[in-house]
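User: Before I run my own analysis I want an independent prediction to cross-check against. Here's the chain; please return only the structure tokens and, at the end, one sentence I can use as a sanity check.
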Amino acid sequence: MSDLEEEYQLEYFHEEGFVRRECPSCGDHFWTRDADRELCGEPPCADYEFIDDPGLDEPHSLAEMREAFLSFFEAHDHERIDPYPVAANRWRDDVLLTQASVYDFQPLVTSGQTPPPANPLTISQPCIRMQDIDNVGKTGRHTMAFEMMAHHAFNAREDLDEPGQYAYEGEVYWKSETVRYCDELLEEMGADITDVTYIEDPWVGGGNAGPAIEVIYRGLELATLVFMCMEADPDGEYELKDGNTYSYMDTYIVDTGYGLERWTWMSQGTATVYEAVYPDM
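Assistant: Structure tokens:
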């Protein structure tokens, strides 16, 4: 049982006939349209199934995949914004490099002190993760520098004691809509959506937490959908995987991350991500 099991009972999952399973290999819980599926689909529980057999209809370059993603969300009423610098210390003093698109909006926007540049929005954010350097060249899927395609929505509870205390009000959209967008994007790109699994994986980081979903297709994690809605609280009701307790916040944020390089790789089915990302090297 996951730490936030009730948070994953999404209306969309039930509408679409998903079933919840426990992977006998790793013990993770996941959602699938395939009632006969037993494994979660993520290595090492399962192998890659797209090498030399691409999982999308058409091969895409990085530029083509980026444009396809951003255009999809523009067509669904998101405003496209320009990426931020990779040096996050230009606007915050707690980190050096931009490691995810949500870094662009921490801490002022995520806390509700400052309005976002658009709501909802879509972006493709260049990122650098030094902690991945030891995996580069070993796994075939890790890159230290990458682009995180994303869509974000910034919400605030409507039953606040002091309306107007945050820079944004009400709900733009939340969990079911976020999963629906992911499903529709995959289907539009030609994925076999009966082969997609959504793995429950509660997220914690930087004093915040919330339910999160890893999106797995043919053995590759293509996206993570984070629902940031909790904050560290010594008296909190929920104890999560870091051993700390958390309670719900007044603001709640859709924080998604779609790996541009991995989507491009999936569309080409090359032996490793590097052939797809650096075809001329």
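Sanity check: The longest strand covers residues 245-259.
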